[in-house]
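User: What would this chain look like folded?
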Amino acid sequence: TTVAKNQVPTIETGQVAGEAAGQPEKTVLDDLPALASSIGLDQKTFSECLDSKKFAQTVTDDAKSGADAGVSGTPGVILLDTKSGKTVSIPGAVPIDQLKSSIDQLIAGTATDAKIKLKPLSPNDHIKGDRNARIWLVEYSDIQCPYCKRFYPTVNQALSDYNGQIVWVYR
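Assistant: Here's the prediction, encoded as structure tokens.
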């Protein structure tokens, strides 16, 4: 995954701001300060933080870890069974049945290992669910990607269906 220099500020601030406003597809660099203000953030403080590029390295590191894991488009999902160490690659916004099939195979021990090396969880990761869950669902995403938006309810459904067995790691 290649991240253009002008995308880094959009990705690093937009993933939260766009989702909070319910309009991730409209999050573009010029709209971020106004969007931040519209959800109750101090626009001056937000702009200063954005301009400082405080989180640029984190975003660059996440993009590199996705590329190192073989992700070539978004959403790029890698499932990791922390018990067996097996991984499964799921390219694209797959339907819930396909996602659940891959998760079930990992849990049952019948999945073919994609042998993908993932970086460990860090304090910088955006996580939903129990950090100690058996299955990691690591999603490499882009807030402007319409397929990522389509995949969002699928991931939430999987989190609900597997109640505590999955942690969603958003990178």
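The first strand starts at residue 76 and ends at 81. If you want, I can go into more detail on any region.
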